[in-house]
Amino acid sequence: MSSQNIIVAFGGISPEHEVSVLSAMQAIASLKNTSYTIIPLYISKSGRWLTGPPLLDLENYQDLDALVKQATSCSFGHDDLGKPILRETEKNGFFSSPEQHSIHAVIPAFHGSEGENGAFQGTCEMYNIPYAGSNVLASSLGMDKVKAKELCRAHNIPVVDEYDFYESEWVRDQKSVLYYAEKLQYPVMVKPTTLGSSIGVAKADDEEALIEAVEMAFRYDHNLMIEKAVIPLMEINCSILGTTEQMQTSVCERPLGQQDLLSFEDKYQNEGGGQKGMASADRIIPADISDELTQKIQAMSRNIFKIFRASGVARLDFLVNTDTDEVYFNEINTIPGSFSYYLWEESGMNMKELMLKLIDIALEQHRQKVGRIRSYDTNLLNEKAVKGIKGLKGTK
């Protein structure tokens, strides 16, 4: 088994499943001519873990049912020496044994839900596997729009006023939700709390539109956020690469939407979107804004990246009032679409260099973690101690 296997993990049970596939294929393509062996780990829409050569070809994803039948079930495990492996759990032939692959590092390319919210990162932690990107804490905070805003507000980073509520509250007391929306003043934005790619996001100019937007958004999430709309609006994004101790800042971009919000279609379904993912969206890079505003947003991006204890590559999204140049934090994407390589290209780093940098960061972060004392030698389970614990059963 090679000791230089890079696992690219993607897919998952998420409305952003297809977007994840696109990001993964871009990462895989960029690493083809390197010293690493690329092994796909595809999580199907039903939650099955799969691997195999057919998963490396984007065209095969046009028929997911057929692709799943061609792939091989797999799981994380440990070899006889206790080192993490990706183990195929099916035999390819009558006389063959399931293969197992050593793991040098994992590149998560998930978007949304269990892949980006820290759950998969936690699995890697449990198996002691180096992985690219943010840790469990930063990933989970970044996925929750409400908690992310609360954290920024606590650090005096400007955010737009919002109100969040659960589906049970909407069913029980719709009038209260409508009251708070009125208090924010229309127009407002309706957003699922834990989704990305603008899925389920809608603008509401009045109560009727709000009710329709809420009912639609509840199809994706049980917790929604109503947010005061910024008018006139300009969206500016910036990417950060590195760790909380050492980071690089990309140029800024100004995404161009067809409406007054950047939709899923704007991001992924423009010309070439089927192949380029987030990189297909219309945008101006570097953003056509003043040097002063650029520097302000870059400084805010570095600060937020550090506050969230993020690592790897992240994209910070901001809302700007074009009349006043007031800047508001919108969200942090701990696994940005296409890994935001288009921002780093404009900053002098191509996709291949970006992915190699992510692997290096992952390995260094892992080395720092395993270099610490991770167990505490004690004889707590000796006979005397066990008797003492048993004696506690009768105490209060």
UniProtKB/TrEMBL annotation:
Gene3D superfamilies membership? 3.40.50.20, ATP-grasp fold, A domain, ATP-grasp fold, B domain
UniProt EC number: 6.3.2.4
- Report the leader peptide range: none
Instruction: Name the UniProt key words of this record, in alphabetical order.
Output: ATP-binding, Cell shape, Cell wall biogenesis/degradation, Cytoplasm, Ligase, Magnesium, Manganese, Metal-binding, Nucleotide-binding, Peptidoglycan synthesis
Query: InterPro entries, from UniProt?
Result: ATP-grasp, ATP_grasp_subdomain_1, D-Ala_lig_Van_CS, D_ala_D_ala, Dala_Dala_lig_C, Dala_Dala_lig_N, PreATP-grasp_dom_sf
Q: Where in the cell is it found?
A: Cytoplasm
Q: Name one GO molecular function term.
A: D-alanine-D-alanine ligase activity
Family matches, as SUPFAM superfamilies = Glutathione synthetase ATP-binding domain-like, PreATP-grasp domain
Q: What is its main location?
A: cytoplasm
Active site annotation, chain numbering: E16, S197, S338
| Occurrences of domain ATP-grasp (ranges) | 149-360
Which biological process annotations from GO are given for this protein? cell wall organization; peptidoglycan biosynthetic process; regulation of cell shape
Question: What is the recorded function of this protein according to its Swiss-Prot or TrEMBL entry?
Answer: Cell wall formation.
Name under which the protein is recorded: D-alanine--D-alanine ligase
Q: Which organism is it from?
A: Fodinibius sediminis
Gene (name only): ddl
